[in-house]
Amino acid sequence: MDMNKMKMPMLAFAVTSVLLGATAPVMAEDVTLFDYEQPTSAYEDAYLSGRLNVNSGNQDQTSHDLNLDMNYERVFSSPDRDIKINGDLQGSSKRGPNTDDATQDNYIGTGSVGMNKYLKPNSKGAFWYGEGEVGVKKGADDPRIKAGVGVGYGRVVNVTPMAQAIRLVEALTDKKRLTGSLTKAEYNQVANIIAKEAEYRTQYGAADYQQNWMADIEKVLQATGKTAGELGAIGILRARDVLVNERISTRKYGWLAKVGVSEVFKDYDGSDTKPALDMGAEYHRPLNNQTQFSNEASASAILQDSDSSYTAKNAMSLTHELTDRVDWLNSWAMNYDHNDVTSADTTTNAVSSTYRYYISNKLAFDTVAALSKVSDDITDNGNDEIDKSLFMGVTYRLK
Predict the structure, then answer these.
(1) How far is the C-alpha of 219 from the C-alpha of 235, rounded, in Å?
(2) Which helix (H) or strand (E) holds 107?
(3) For residue range 365-392, what is the model confidence (pLDDT) as tens digits?
(4) Residues 6+ positions from 112 with CB-CB distance below 8 Å
(5) Are 309 and 302 in contact (CB under 8 A)?
(6) Model confidence band, residue 20 (pLDDT cutoffs 50, 70, 90)
(7) Where is the signal peptide (predicted)?
C-alpha cells in the first residue's frame, strides 16, 4: 500500500486530536467528567444511517446506489461486572446505467455479547471475561461462530451522566434558576439520578417516566439550597431540553487490556473447530466536556499447524460537539488480514470526517468526506488507487 498517500489525512487527524486536547478548557467549578463516581448504570446507542442516489433519463435503465449501516451498543455496569452487547450490519445495492448492468447486492454483519467479571467489586483491576460472536456475510459458505474466555485488567466507565449534569447546571444557571455553584458531591447526586433514566422508564412507563425522573432531579437540586425556590416552568422546560430534546454523544473514560483463547466453531469458508489466541485493548478519554477520544484494537491468530492465519484491527475516533445540535465526527479504521492458506495479505484503511446536524434528537443530516485504500498485492483489480468520496445522507437514532 502507498502509505505516503494516506499520511496526510492521518497526520491531520492526529494534529486535530492534539490541538483539541491541548486547548481543553477548565469545566464549570472545576468539576470534570473524571469526578463521576459511577453507580450501577446502563446506556444504549442504536443508529441507522443511509444514503441513496438514483439516476434516470438519457441512459438505458434507472441506476441506483444505496448504502445502509446499522450500529447497536448496550452496556450494563454494576460493581462487579460489565456486560456489553454489540451489533453492526452494513448493506449495499448498486446498479449501473447500461442494459447489461445487473443489480449487485452485498451485506456483512456481526453481533457479539461479552461479560467482564471483576475479581474485586468496584475496582478497575483484574477481571476474567467470556464472550461470543456471530458473523454473516453474502457469499459465505457458513456464518462465523466464535466463543472465548480470558483474563484482563482495567475498566472503561460511562461518564455520560456527568456530562449531562454539567450541561444541565450550566443551562439552569444561565436561566437564573440556580443561585450558587454545586459541589462535586452534589454534581454526582444529580448525575446518579440522570444515570437511572432506564430504571424510571421501566418503573413508570415510556409515557410517564419523565415527570417522575425530573421531579427527583429537582428534589436533589432543591436539597442543595442553591435553587431559587422551585425550578418553575422555565427551569423544568430548560431541563427537559437538555436531558430529552438535546442529543449528547456517549462519553467514556478509562482503559483495559485482555488476552484469551477462543474456538471458531464455524467460519465463512465452511471450515470449523479452529482454536485461536485473542488480544484486545481499549482507551477512552474525554478531552473536555464537548470532545471524546476513543481507540479500540484487537488481534486474533489461528492456533493450527496447518493454518497460521491472523487478523489485526484498530478503530480510532474523535467526536467534538460544535453546538448542542452539531457534532463533528472523525474516524480512522485499519484492518489487516493474513490468510495463511492462500498466502494473501490484505490491508484496508478508511478515514472519514462527518458533519452531523441533528434535526431532532432522533434524526440527523450528515455530510461526509471519506478516503479509503485497499492493499492486496493484486494489480488492476479496481482498488489500486485511493477512493475519495463526498456524500450526504441521514442518520436515525433508534435508541
Answers:
(1) 13
(2) strand 104-118
(3) 999 999 988 887 766 666 667 888 888 8
(4) 84, 85, 86, 87, 131, 132, 133, 134
(5) yes
(6) very low
(7) 1-28
Break the chain into its structural domains and give their ranges: 3-18+33-158+251-397, 163-245
- Given this model, what pLDDT does residue 295 score? 97
Alpha-carbon distance of 250 to 299, in angstroms, equals 25
pLDDT tens digits, one per residue of 346-362: 889 999 999 999 988 78
115 CB-near residues (< 8 Å, 6+ apart): 81, 82, 83, 84, 129, 130, 131
What are the distances in angstroms from CA 127 to CA 67, 120, 152, 156, 284? 39, 8, 5, 12, 18
Q: Is 270 left (phi over 0), alpha (psi -120 to 50) or beta?
A: left
- The pTM of this model reads 0.82
Contact 51, 67 (CB under 8 A): yes
State the residue for C-alpha cell 441506476. 63
Select the more confidently predicted residue: 231 or 313.
313
C-beta separation of 112 from 86 below 8 A: yes
| Cα gap 375→350, rounded to integer Å | 12
Can you tell me the distance from the alpha carbon of 387 to that of 193, in angstroms, rounded to the nearest whole number? 47
Give the span between the Cα atoms of 101 and 119, in whole angstroms.
59
Whole-number Å distance between alpha carbons of 284 and 233: 38
Residue 21 has pLDDT above 60, yes or no: no
**pLDDT by residue (tens digit) across 188-206?**
999 999 988 888 888 888 8
Q: Give the model's pLDDT for residue 84.
A: 93
Name the grid cell of 92.
Answer: 449495499
pLDDT tens, residue by residue, 326-343: 999 999 999 998 877 777
3-18+33-158+251-397 to CATH, choices 2.40.230, 3.10.260, 2.60.120, 2.60.40: 2.40.230
pLDDT at residue 15, rounded to an integer: 43
